[in-house]
Amino acid sequence: MVNPTATQKFRWMVVWLAAMSLTGCAYATKSLLPENIQRVNVAPVKSSIDLSAEITDKTPFRVYRPGLEVEITNAIINRYIFDGTLKVASAEKADALLEATLVDYRRDALRYSEGEDIQEYRLSVTVEAVFKAKADGKILWSKRIAGDTTFFLAGSRAISEDQAATRAVEDVARRVVEATIEYW
Questions:
Q1: Which long-range contacts (CB under 8 A, 24 or more apart) does 5-8 make?
Q2: Phi-psi bin for 7: left (phi > 0), alpha (psi -120 to 50), beta?
Q3: Which pairing describes strands 46-47 and 30-31: parallel, antiparallel, or unpaired?
Q4: Roughly what angle, to the nearest 10 degrees, separates helices 161-181 and 68-83?
C-alpha cells in the first residue's frame, strides 16, 4: 500500500473543501401564494382606534395621528410595488384583496435621564390584516402585525415623532407584504 505524500493530502483536502462549499447550507423562501394570484388590491386602511376610550393607569392618555390610515395604505401599496411579486390593481382586476384595520398607535417611554425626563421612545403601529382570494373569498392569512421604531428626543440621533411614525409605518408595511409573499 502506498503512503500518500503531503502534496497528495493537500490536493485531496482542497478537493474535499471545494465539494463541501458547493453543497453548503442555505435557506430559501418560496411564495405562499397560489399560482392564480398575480394581482392584489389594497383596500383603504380603516381605523378602529377609539379616541373616547376610558383612560386607565395603564393608558393615561390616548395617542393618535390623524391621517395615519392613509399613510399605511400608501406604504403597503408602495411596498408591493417595490417587492414586485404581485401587481397592485383595482378591485375589479385583482386576484386577491388585502384589507387592514389600524388597531393601535402607541408611544412608550424607553429611557429616562437622571432628572426623570424622557430621552427615548418606542413608537408602534399595529394593524389587523386579512389577505383573501377574490375568486372564492377564501382567507389565505389573517394576522395582527406591528411595526415599530425607537427615537431619541435630543442629541445627535434625535428625530421628530413624525419621522419616527414614518419609519414605523414603513416597518408595518414591510411586514404585511412579507406575510403575503414569503413562506419560511
A1: none
A2: alpha
A3: unpaired
A4: 50
Nearest to 161 by CA among 63, 31, 82, 73: 63
DSSP labels, 74-92 = HHHHHHHHHH-SSEE--TT
Average pLDDT over residues 154-167: 90
**Per mean pLDDT, which range of 17-21, 29-33, 62-66, 78-82 is the poorest?**
29-33
Flag whether the pTM goes above 0.90. Answer: no
Closest CA to 143 of 123, 126, 168: 126
Query: What is the distance between the alpha carbons of residues 92 and 152, in angstroms, rounded to a whole number?
Result: 44
Which residues are CB-neighbours of 166 under 8 A, at least 6 positions away?
71
d(CA 64, CA 67): 9
